[in-house]
User: Fold this.
Amino acid sequence: MEMTREKAWDLFSQYVDSESLIKHSLAVEASMIKLAKTFDEDVEKWSCCGLLHDIDFQKYPEQHPIKGPEILKEAGYPEEFCLAVKGHSDDTNTPRTTKMAKTLYAVDQLSSFVVACALVRPTKFEGMKVKSVKKKMKDKAFARAVDRDGLKKGAEELGIELSELTQYVIDGLKEREEELSKMGMSLI
Assistant:
């Protein structure tokens, strides 16, 4: 199967129409693109993985993330790709053995957290610093659904410092926001 962002978007659109879930998926996709470039990996494949990681969340919330890999496998996505999607949640006990799987796990919640930080800033992503994001991480009332221990665990599994990973995510989201704004879309 030839993996393209266009095909991934078509499949995604069949399962997701929630604005908040679309924005979350686009944010995770942005982070995956940035890290694929950083690690010299297949940008198109990693983009698709970020976009499609929550494909089952809206229609099958009680089966998330088990149903997603089934949908993706049926659509022709390779086993490694499906396992990365399945492993982005600790609930499945799926080992994350590839760089793509570890990265998806590491950026999933972190991308949402950085977007939440941007939402409360007058300049949004512009001028955002890792220090300010880390300060928000200490505030348990801010974006309380984000598992702070999971953020640390994701960076550790990936083998990079949380601060470095956060900078990549900020940069990726900022770059993608600029691209999306030209198309009349936004991550925030």
